[in-house]
Structures are given as C-alpha cells and as structure tokens.
Amino acid sequence: MLTFTITPAEVQDIDSLLALEKRVFIAADGLLSKRSFRYHLGSKNILLVARQNCPTKPVIGYLLVFVRTQSARLYSLAIHPDFQRHGVARSLYTHASAILKSKNIHKLSLELRPSNTAAFKFYQSLGFEKKTTRPNYYGDGENALCLSLNARVCPLPYSST
Ligand SMILES: CC(C)(COP(=O)(O)OP(=O)(O)OC[C@H]1O[C@@H](n2cnc3c(N)ncnc32)[C@H](O)[C@@H]1OP(=O)(O)O)[C@@H](O)C(=O)NCCC(=O)NCCS
C-alpha cells in the first residue's frame, strides 16, 4: 500500500512541481511555470503537494485551487503516472475541500478535456456534474468540458470533516 502525506507546497517543492507538470501535461494544456508556482505559494489560492512519507522524496502529486470570495476553481491536479490509482488525487481533493469548507466556500468548478476519461471518471466519483462546453479551449483546439459541484448538495463522499 502506498503511504503518502499531503502538505501545503513550499518554495523548495517548485523544481519537483515543474518536473511533474512536464511529465503529466503537454504544452497545449498550458503548463504552469516556475513563476506561476511561486506566485500561487504566496497567494490565497490552495496549492497542496503529496509526497511519499519522506520529506526528501520528490512530489508525486499536486493540486491547485483558485479561491474566490464565494466559489473556487480547481485549476490543476496531477499525479505522477507511477503513483496513480492509489487514492492520491482523492486525498488531495479531500484536503482542499476541508480548507474550502472552513472558508465557507461550497461551489467548485473546473475544466477538462472531453478525451480525458480518467479525470472525468475521477471527478464524477466526487459528484461533479457537466454544465457546459467551452469550444476551442485548449492550445491544440480541443474543447473543454466545464464541471461543477455544490458541496452543500453533494457532500464529500470521502471527507473526514
Ligand atoms: C485524473 C488523476 C488526477 C486521478 O488521480 P489518481 O490519484 O490516480 O486518482 P485516485 O486514485 O484518487 O482515484 C479516485 C477514483 O477516481 C476514479 N479514477 C481515477 N483514475 C481513474 C481511471 N484511470 N479510470 C477510471 N476511474 C478512475 C476511480 O473512481 C477512483 O477510485 P478507485 O481507484 O477506488 O476505483 C490522474 O489520473 C492524473 O494525474 N491524470 C493526468 C492529469 C490530469 O488529467 N489531471 C486532471 C485534469 S486537470
């Protein structure tokens, strides 16, 4: 069984985050840069990392949520392919949801590629629903599916809070 910890990202995680970003996404997805990661570290947004139970090991997954006044946008979520299907994404999401709940934010939205069936199934398993489509959203012309979730209507199935 994979054991891992979830913590807020720190400045020393940035190189590891950049490597993960390049491993998981393609340029047309709009890769986050060193500057963007650095910006989000010092912002009100939620940037969490997962790593195996050893502080010197590289990041195996991360989640970035943009926090607004009454809603939030799950901007990015990536798990290293060697560590997928071990509940890492679910755990990152659960931690972020607890933070949003503490801020009284219950509405969460996100975009993803219709071709990304793994991510679609993941978000569906959490209760996200398809709302609309954004044409020509990604750099290579693929549309985006827009999903949203109201945590008041659909409480977290996995949350311990
Ligand atoms: C989508 C992604 C984040 C899922 O991460 P993960 O850590 O493997 O997901 P989890 O192990 O927490 O999965 C939780 C549940 O989601 C669903 N799920 C996750 N990956 C799935 C897959 N490949 N196929 C079908 N269902 C899947 C399952 O219901 C799973 O529960 P189960 O394993 O008990 O069946 C990961 O595949 C990933 O990083 N993909 C590339 C980047 C990406 O697409 N990011 C999202 C778009 S921004």
Structure description:
The chain is α+β, with helices and mostly antiparallel strands and 161 residues long. The protein has a domain at 4-109: 3-Layer(aba) Sandwich (Aminopeptidase), CATH 3.40.630. The chain has helices spanning 14-24, 34-41, 88-102, 117-126; strands at residues 4-8, 46-52, 59-67, 71-79, 107-112, 129-134, 144-150. Strands 1-2-3-4-5-7-6 form a 7-stranded mixed beta sheet. The structure holds coenzyme A. Coenzyme A binds next to strand 4, helix 3 and helix 4.
Outline of the structure:
This protein has about 160 residues and is of the alpha+beta class.
- The neighbouring-strand order within the major sheet is 1-2-3-4-5-7-6
Q: Which class of the domain at 4-109 in CATH terms?
A: Alpha Beta
Which ligands are bound?
A: coenzyme A
Approximately how much beta-strand content do the residues carry?
25-35%
Question: What is the share of helical residues?
Answer: 25-40%
> What pattern of helices and strands is seen along the backbone?
EHHEEEHEHEE
Q: If you average the pLDDT, what whole number results?
A: 94
Spatial gap, N to C terminus = 24 Å
CATH level-four homologous superfamily name of the domain at 4-109: Gcn5-related N-acetyltransferase (GNAT)
Number of E-type strands: 7
Query: What kind of sheet is the major sheet?
Result: 7 strands, mixed
Class based on secondary structure composition and strand pairing: alpha+beta
Total helices: the number is 4
* Global geometry: globular
What are the low-pLDDT stretches, counting only 5+ consecutive residues below 50? none
Briefly note the CATH topology name of the domain at 4-109.
Aminopeptidase
Radius of gyration: 15 Å
CATH architectural group of the domain at 4-109: 3-Layer(aba) Sandwich
